[in-house]
Protein 1
Amino acid sequence: MNLALPFSVALGAVLLDALFGEPRRAHPLVAFGRYAAWLERRLLRDSIATGALAWACAVLPWVTLAALLQGWLWCWSPWAAGAGAALALYAALGLRSLGEHAGAVTVALESDDLPAARAAVARIVSRDCDALDATQVAAAATESVLENGSDAVFAALFWGLLLGAPGAVLYRLSNTLDALWGYRTPRYLRFGRAAARIDDGLNWLPARLVAMTYAVLGATGVALRCWRRQAARWKSPNAGPVMAAGAGALRIQLGGAAPYHGQWQLRPLLGEGRPADAAGLRRAVHLVRAGVLLWLLLLALPALGDARVWMDRNAGTIAGEEPQHA
């Protein structure tokens, strides 16, 4: 196995995201959202089975197409298949977008422009932002960075590296359907259950790897303690470890009361330390970026070892000597 290929796929996708960000025109997820809305209009029923059928109709054709394309490219060259996987993974990543949205909130908070900060954070969270003060705006944005760092960055990397282009497509489309259908409302309570459960399953292992990544790169002891004591209290089985460990790693406090649909909901506290602020939000973005660099480094180490073995085996040929035959 060529151990340089997974590293090259991940590095290529991250570099493409850094250079170009999300496509400004004809984003594939926008087209997928229209397709999902078309399916919803035709299949929406108060039924778990119908929701599972809708999920399959929405996701599986594109995963199959990605698998066929990857197989066709592999017949040409493993590196051609790797390039295809890098493109698919780039389309699934949202690292630069995450930084841009958080940056808009940070700049507004640092300028003491609360209305602008509220407007900026409203683009990335679902709570009622008009009722938030500066600390609550910073907390909402920091929670979004930590959780979406897991969903839109690390989990996409995990599945793209594990299964190539089909894995990246499977994860990103499943995560998108969870965002569209995974609500506990009368409309989606049963219909969206399959989308929510599948997304939970796909995120279970990546979320815990992300929580460990945050802990390693921050205040490790605090992060692990917060993860152990606080994660289970959070309503999401995957967001709990990620946000508790991330808040602990940053030594800030998140969670607490937040307004949704005109009512304040009491949520558990996460992390410990100072209240959320613009500086903490900036550090949260740096934590996600540092985590990506760490993952790339871990992928690079076996690739470098593989390259060294290859060079040792071919040292004579590289030096111009004839290979020895028995």
Protein 2
Amino acid sequence: MTTPVVTAPFALAGRRLLLLADGRFSAADGKTAVCVAMDRPGDVVAVLDASRAGRSVRDVLGVDCAAPVVATIEEGLRARPEVAVVGVAPTGGVLEAGDRAVVAACLRAGVDVVSGLHVFLEDDAELRALALASGARIWDVRRVPEARLVSTGAGCNTGASVVLTVGSDCGAGKMTVALELARAAKGRGLRAAWAATGQTGIILRGRGVPVDRVVADFVGGATEALVNLEGDAMDVVFVEGQGALMHPGYGAVMLGLLYGSMPDAMVLVHAPGRTRYKRFTIPIPPLAEIIAGYEAMMRPYKRSRVVALALNTAALGEPDAHRAIEAARQETGLPATDAVRFGAGFLLDALRDTGAIPSGSDA
């Protein structure tokens, strides 16, 4: 049977990476570039963003990456990259004219290009010809193999526990929390994997399902196939959520992830201070209402609870971050922390204490 799982056609780990995010190297507009820089700081050799040129990634993001931010693609290519990653995700996933010229320059120079856009570079005859002439390769991350799988409602049948990161909004950090949870669980001696369901996660994981490219009827089935793949010989699988259940634009993908993964527990990811859906004017409901919505959707199938909150406090100073975390605890009665800033151990404790995941060795 055809699998809906996308697998990287060439390696990224350990190769010299150029991140393409001109004018948008920020968490708001260049999520892919930012996440790659955070996760693979030793591999990044340069970031293209004329608006922040002359600084380092460390200066811009505060992460341990000394790669320079450069103003032109010529400067970026002088860093001898092996792979260029399109680091932006504009609304609609289109390739804008300036970005296309930069991609063309990379392909002309023989640099492999990775793109998570909805528009596929391979379908552009000129870009395809440049790649063929130079020997460069293109990976369109969102090009998902067609597989008409309908979810059965069984979820993961390998014996692994499944934890889904769910959101109050888009772009709150669901992928990052899933990754941090998997790392922390491995540190405790658990056999842990994470399932990537968006373009950035798939780039970092090397495989996954871009659920926002799957035909709606088959999102659940694709997710079910993915959790069973990642759950093989594992104690726990952390599934990267997408969108948000109550989001008017991107609620459908989260619904498919819920039904396909049939999570044993959920961790709600929230950006404190955000009161309206990203790029919308519609208010985000109170946290208690959001939690009740997620749990209600699962109630006909299993007792799956939101057991903890992962807050994205990157925009706050540390004292304000602590205050926001405490406020979330008071509002919901649930354990809360920032998994990046303060570690994911507190979230793992909550999952363990509710029986959602095994204890591990606490090593």
